């Protein structure tokens, strides 16, 4: 049976228009700001441009002003948006908002969708996802969750500390994961809560200084202290937070891969252009065998990333959990994308490490991808466990 990975004509056209918008509108802004949008004015201008170009919010349903793309459709469009560090922000598909929109569409009540999803989808507000905690709390092991929500008259009181909460600075609301039953180390008993930014019980402690800077709203440490929310703030069902998190995590891992694949392509294009024009030792740089190997290896990594992403997205679109395929794709892409950008720096030499190109910025931005959304080591552990379980199941037949 023939395998056709070509996107549908409407998706291909949206991807083409996204690529055009990113190159003509977004990249000049990116280059003028060292790849970092540091003001609401920049964000608003980019998103206004995306709306004018008809490429805004490709992932959300048409009833919220989006294009309603499935995961495979997102793969093509998100990669084109990711060709610039600011492309995802412009299209309103940057983390964590994109993943939060996906989850709200799937599990929020009608009232919650109108109050939180609709303004988030239009770019009127931003959001954050407050799950990660300082040690010994939740990190690679979500079951270590220590933040606790306790029943009070008419609602819940949340107490705990979160950190590395991306986008929290200026967010209109947080989706906070808190333990409503059980103890740290247990895999159940978590609940998600919608917490408005003006809740006096949620305060920002500090911006965490990090290697990367391009994710809008920074990485923030938050404290929940006597943070009281009403019963209507519960997202989904009580004690089902870990299960709902899977609705978000698998697709979010893939959309991270899609966006960063765009940056890998950008780095490769920069390196190839340099290799084609730079002359030394009596020939073009690209005619030297070792440079050709670097270019070829990056092409292989880019193609392999795209194939693994599409495989995982196909499974997600079929309604499967896709746990194994998303772990494999996330692990491979996080490492391969780093390799591509690193090779581009090497090919460009002194120019590559200078501020005249954005390759140094790309390198700093993609390195944390091997840690967030599950470090490579955690994914490898999970991949191996699934393989061994499959072996044991076969052996027991």
Automatic annotation (TrEMBL):
PROSITE patterns according to UniProt: ACYL_COA_DH_2
UniProtKB keywords: FAD, Flavoprotein, Oxidoreductase
SUPFAM superfamilies: Acyl-CoA dehydrogenase C-terminal domain-like, Acyl-CoA dehydrogenase NM domain-like
GO biological process: fatty acid beta-oxidation using acyl-CoA dehydrogenase
CDD domains given in the database record: ACAD (cd00567)
Single Gene Ontology MF annotation: flavin adenine dinucleotide binding
Flavoprotein as UniProt keyword: yes
Domain Acyl-CoA oxidase/dehydrogenase middle: 128-226
Acyl-CoA dehydrogenase/oxidase N-terminal domain span: 11-124
Cross-referenced InterPro entries: Acyl-CoA_dehydrogenase, Acyl-CoA_DH_CS, Acyl-CoA_Oxase/DH_mid-dom, Acyl-CoA_Oxase/DH_mid-dom_sf, AcylCo_DH-like_C, AcylCo_DH/oxidase_C, AcylCoA_DH/ox_N, AcylCoA_DH/ox_N_sf
Pfam families for the chain: Acyl-CoA_dh_1, Acyl-CoA_dh_M, Acyl-CoA_dh_N
Cofactor requirement: FAD
Transmembrane stretches, start-end: none
Segments forming domain Acyl-CoA dehydrogenase/oxidase C-terminal: 239-388
GO cellular component, one term: cytoplasm
PANTHER family listed in its UniProt record: ACYL-COA DEHYDROGENASE FAMILY MEMBER 11, MEDIUM-CHAIN SPECIFIC ACYL-COA DEHYDROGENASE, MITOCHONDRIAL-RELATED
Assembly description: Homodimer.
Family: Belongs to the acyl-CoA dehydrogenase family.
Name of the protein in question: Acyl-CoA dehydrogenase
């Amino acid at each position: 049976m023939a395998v056709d990975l070509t996107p549908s004509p409407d998706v291909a056209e949206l991807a083409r228009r996204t690529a055009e918008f990113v190159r003509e509108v977004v990249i000049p802004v990116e280059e003028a700001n060292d790849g970092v949008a540091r003001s609401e004015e920049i964000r608003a201008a980019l998103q206004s441009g995306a709306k004018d170009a008809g490429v805004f919010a490709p992932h959300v349903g048409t009833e919220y002003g989006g294009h309603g793309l499935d995961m495979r459709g997102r793969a093509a469009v998100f990669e084109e948006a990711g060709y610039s560090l600011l492309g995802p922000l412009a299209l309103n598909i940057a983390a964590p908002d994109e993943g939060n929109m996906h989850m709200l569409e799937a599990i929020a009540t009608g009232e919650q969708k109108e109050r939180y999803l609709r303004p988030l989808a239009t770019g009127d507000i931003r959001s954050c996802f407050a799950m990660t905690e300082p040690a010994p709390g939740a990190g690679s092991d979500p079951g270590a969750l220590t933040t606790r929500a306790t029943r009070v008259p008419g609602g819940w009181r949340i107490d705990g500390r979160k950190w590395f909460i991306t986008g929290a600075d200026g967010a209109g609301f947080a989706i906070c994961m808190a333990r409503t039953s059980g103890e740290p180390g247990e895999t159940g008993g978590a609940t998600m809560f919608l917490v408005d930014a003006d809740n006096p019980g949620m305060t920002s402690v500090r911006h965490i200084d990090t290697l990367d800077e391009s994710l809008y709203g920074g990485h923030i440490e938050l404290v929940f202290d006597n943070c009281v929310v009403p019963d209507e703030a519960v997202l989904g069902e009580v004690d089902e937070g870990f299960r709902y998190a899977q609705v978000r995590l698998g697709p979010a891992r893939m959309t991270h891969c899609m966006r960063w694949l765009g940056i890998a392509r950008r780095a490769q294009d920069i390196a190839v252009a340099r290799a084609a024009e730079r002359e030394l030792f009596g020939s073009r740089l690209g005619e030297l065998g070792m440079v050709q190997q670097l270019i070829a290896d990056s092409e292989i990594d880019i193609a392999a990333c795209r194939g693994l992403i599409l495989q995982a997205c196909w499974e997600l679109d079929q309604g499967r959990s896709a746990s194994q395929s998303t772990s494999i794709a996330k692990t491979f892409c996080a490492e391969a994308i780093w390799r591509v950008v690193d090779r581009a720096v090497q090919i460009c030499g002194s120019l590559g490490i200078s501020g005249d190109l954005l390759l140094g910025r790309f390198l700093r931005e993609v390195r944390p991808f091997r840690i967030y959304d599950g470090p490579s080591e955690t994914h490898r552990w999970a991949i191996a466990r699934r393989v061994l379980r499959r072996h044991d199941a076969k052996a027991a037949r």
